[in-house]
Amino acid sequence: MRDLRILLAYLSCLTLVTADFEPGQHLQDVHVHTLDGTFRIAPEQRGRPLLIMASDLHDASIRWMWSAAKSKLDFVTKLPQADCLFLSYGSNAEEETKKFKMELVKAMEAADWDESSRAQLFSRLHFATEPVSSQPGWLPGVLQAWPSSQHVIRAESTGIEVLTMERLDPAYEWLPWPGPSSPTSLALVHDSPCEGPWASSVAGRVALIILQDPAASPAGSLGLQAATCSFARIIELAQDAQAAAVLIASKPGHDVVQMTCDSPADCSIPLYTPATMISHSAAVQLRSRTSCHKLPRTKAASLCHLETSRCQDTLRQWMRRAGCK
C-alpha cells in the first residue's frame, strides 16, 4: 500500500532579470516587433496610457481567460482609452499572439461590431512576435514586478517522484480559495457525485471526483458517469460530508474550466468548502498512485487508505518541467 498526501500550493514563475525602478524615472524609447510592424514605446511622448499584458499559457487561469467568451467580450467592450501590448512568455510567442488576436476578432464578431469599430480598436492593440525574455530595454525588468503565480497541487507517494499538477480555482467572487495549507489525505468519490449523503469517511479529507464517459468506462472502473447537477451541488454535498476540499477533474479530452454558480439558486447556497479543478489526465495519475479499498458507505463515496508523508518537490524542478523562464 502506498502512502500519499495532497498539498495545494502557489509556485512563482519569474522573469530572470534584475531591475530597480522608481516612480517618475525617465525611461528610454523601445521598439517592439509586432504582427503589424514595429510599435514604438516612447514614455516621454505618450498621449495615452499603455497597458502591458504578458501571458504564460502554462498557467491554467491564463488559458481559461483566453478561451472564456465573457472575459474576451469584457475586454473588447470595457477597454479604456489606452494602448495595449500583448506579450507571451512562450518560445513560440508569434504563434501565441496570433491566437490572441484571433480570439479578440471572434469576440468582436460575436458582439456584431462593424469593420470600422474593429479597426479603431485594433489600432490600439499590439501583438508582439518575440517572447518576454527577448524584449528590448527595460520591458523585461518592469514585468518582473508582476510575477506570475501558478496555482498547483502537489502529491507525494512513498518511493515515487512527487506529482505536481496545475489547478484552476473557481470564480473568486463565488467561492474564494484558500484550501488546506497543510498536506491532507485523499478520498475518491464513486458512483454519482450528485447523490447524497456521502460517506462519513470523506470527512477531513480532500474529495477527488473523476468524471468519465459511461460508454468509455469499463465495468468496475473508478470513473463516474457524467454529473447531472451543478458544481454548486457537488461542493454542497462535499461540504455536508465535512470534506476538507474538493478536487474535480475536467472532462476527458478537455482543458480545465473555471467553476462558478449557474443560477440564482446555486449562487445562494452558502459554501465555504474550497474546491478546484485539475485536468482529467492529472486526476487519473493521482488515482493510479492510490491503493483504494471500498469501505461501508451510505452513498457515493469510498475511502482510499492513504497515509501522509513529506512533500519534497522543489520550485526549481517544477519551473523546469513547466518551461518557466
Low-confidence stretches: 12-18, 214-225, 292-325
- Order of strands in the sheet with the most strands? 12-11-10-9-13
Could you state the order of secondary-structure elements as H and E?
Answer: EEEEHHEHHEHEEEEHEHEHEH
Give the terminus-to-terminus CA distance: 38 Å
In this structure, how is the largest beta sheet organized? 5 strands, mixed
Task: Indicate the CATH architecture of the largest domain.
Answer: 3-Layer(bba) Sandwich
Quaternary state of the chains: single chain
Tell me the count of domains: 2
Keywords: Signal
Signal peptide: 1-19
Describe this structure in words.
It is a single chain. The protein is α/β, with parallel strands linked by helices. It has two domains: 4-9 and 168-310, Glucose Oxidase, domain 1 (3-Layer(bba) Sandwich), CATH 3.50.30; 18-143, Glutaredoxin, CATH 3.40.30. The chain is 25% helix and 21% strand. The protein has helices spanning 60-67, 69-78, 93-110, 115-122, 139-143, 231-240, 264-267, 280-288, 315-322; strands at 4-13, 30-34, 37-41, 50-55, 83-88, 125-127, 148-157, 163-166, 186-189, 206-209, 245-249, 275-278, 301-303. The strands form four sheets. Strands 12-11-10-9-13 form a five-stranded mixed beta sheet, sandwiched between helices. A hairpin with a 2-residue loop joins strand 2 and strand 3. The chain is elongated, with a radius of gyration of 23 Å. Keywords: Signal.
